[in-house]
Amino acid sequence: MVVISSTKSMWNGREREDRAWRASHEAIVAAAPGRRLVIAEGSGHQIARDRPDTIIDAVVSLVEK
Predict the structure, then answer these.
(1) DSSP states of the chain as a string?
(2) What is the pTM (predicted TM-score) of this model?
(3) Any idea of the CA torsion for 32, 38, 44, 55, to the nearest 10 degrees?
(4) CA-CA distance, 41 to 8, in Å (whole number)?
């Protein structure tokens, strides 16, 4: 499993909520072996629009395994 997380605020700059959001992604990754977290630099909620390359790379990495 690959969890992809954005770097821009998901909560309009509310740091507490942004930290909780990131922590939830980290918890999903930590919950089982073989999972990893990928950070989509410069992206907001619409990662598919902002950083499609990040999604493609994640899918390719899963297929290669």
Answers:
(1) -EEEEESS-SSTT-HHHHHHHHHHHHHHHHTSTT-EEEEETT--S-HHHH-HHHHHHHHHHHHH-
(2) 0.86
(3) -100
(4) 8
**51 closest CA partner among 59, 23, 25:** 59
Instruction: Compute the C-alpha angle 15/20/22, nearest 5°.
Output: 95
Mean pLDDT computed over 39-60:
96
Residue pLDDT, tens place only, 10-40: 888 889 999 999 999 999 999 999 999 999 9
